[in-house]
Design a protein that fits this description.
Blueprint: E1 6-12, E2 15-21, H1 31-45, E3 52-57, H2 68-71, H3 76-94, E4 99-104, E5 108-109, H4 111-117, E6 121-124, E7 129-131, H5 145-153, H6 155-164, E8 168-169, H7 170-175, E9 181-182, H8 189-200, H9 205-215, H10 220-227, H11 232-241
Length: 251
């Protein structure tokens, strides 16, 4: 019998990594694992120095989905609690001020797909499959995935993916915008993520956090006002006028 999926956080300067791994089994999202992910996200939010976080997994899959054996015994109220808590955790993940990227080396299904959707970017290996197969079980995605996938690929494409519940291959996911990049081999994901990190490092960390908030429906005029309430905008505009790099770009 496999052990429960673990969720670990490591922080190395401006970069962090959240890792899912299961000794002797597949990564699966039980209620306990969801709670642990919530704790990890909350801990990461307290690391103001972190600018970039990779969500990765060890084993054959990214995350195979939810613990169906556990869910089969749920009452309607149990199910609602799981949905409410899952939405809160995914919203917290999506709302992190740092840039997040899901490194999808294998299947990302159900809850695994919803975790990837809550990230800012998704980089996939050729063999990866991603999808929301819940309707095949008489269920629906319950952690905000329906709304997120519709915003990413459009409502009509989302209908086909959610109603049919058939996972799609990495290349098809790239074509519809569900993933941002497909590398040629799994061991190239790290290099692709490094390149992605370098492409966003020019942006001020506070500005990126505020931009993320607006993308999630936040008040743009208020966020713009907040830019002028700290030192970052003064540094950025000063660096521009002085024809130098802003201090946050320095390693």
């Amino acid at each position: 019998m496999s052990s429960q999926t673990r969720v670990d956080l490591t922080v190395d300067g401006r970069r962090a990594t959240i890792t899912f791994h299961t000794e002797g089994g597949l990564n699966v999202m039980s209620m306990a694992v969801l709670e642990r992910l919530g704790q990890v996200v909350e801990e990461l939010a307290g690391h103001a120095e972190v600018r970039f976080c990779t969500l990765r997994a060890e084993g054959k899959v990214f995350i195979a989905g939810a613990n169906i054996k556990e869910m089969a015994g749920y009452s309607p109220e149990d199910a609602k609690h799981l949905c409410v808590r899952g939405n809160a955790v995914m919203d917290a993940l999506a709302g992190l001020p740092c840039v997040t990227v899901a490194a999808v080396h294998g299947a990302a299904l159900g809850g695994g797909c919803e975790i990837a959707l809550a990230c800012d970017f998704r980089v996939a290996a050729p063999a990866a499959k991603i999808g929301l197969p819940e309707t095949n079980l008489g269920l629906i995605p319950g952690w905000g995935g329906i709304g997120r996938i519709a915003k990413i690929v459009g409502p009509q494409r989302a209908r086909r993916l959610v109603f049919g519940g058939v996972p799609i291959k990495a290349e098809d996911a790239l074509k519809c915008g569900l993933v941002d990049e497909v590398v040629q081999a799994p061991d190239e994901i790290g290099a692709a993520i490094d390149t992605l990190f370098k492409s966003v490092i020019r942006g001020g960390p506070r500005a990126i956090g505020l931009a993320k908030r607006v993308l999630l429906g936040g008040d743009e005029p208020e966020a713009f006002r907040e830019c002028f309430a700290g030192d970052e905008a003064r540094e950025g505009m000063g660096a521009f006028l002085e024809k130098r790099a802003a201090r946050w770009t320095e390693e």
